[in-house]
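Encode chain A's predicted structure.
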Amino acid sequence: MGMSVIISEATEQDAEQIFKLQYLCFQSEAALYGNYRIDPLVQSLDSVRREVADDCVFVARLGDEVVGSVHGTVTEDGAAAIGKLCVHPRLQGHGIGARLLRAAESALVEQRGARKFRLHTGHRSESSLRLYRRVGYEKVGTAQGTDGIPMVVLEKQAEAYVKTA
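Encoded structure for chain A:
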């Protein structure tokens, strides 16, 4: 009998698994750009712990194992900045990333008053771009990441969350 993947808010006890999962998941992204100094790979465990305590962080669990995570926080302009969406490589392509996004979007609107969602992804990250477009995000610009990676900026209005949830 198989287990179901459960989406829930992250707890303090999840921080170390999130930290390790990010390191695993973002290796392919780093290889794509030839840059192993991208933010999720250089983030400290203490920083992940602070995010779990202060921000909106959701995890996907398969039994006791954290197999996916996403981070969100509301910025001064009322936009929810969503980032570090990752799913364990062995479970990618099964809708877990979209489920994590929906959970984060819901909490960011209902608990933190977000009016729109904003995220960044690398310009070569085709699978991420496909996912974000599929769930209603549209390109609104480009930016340079703090790690030097050219990024695509995507947004979705919060009312669009209801249509994609």
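The radius of gyration is 15 Å.
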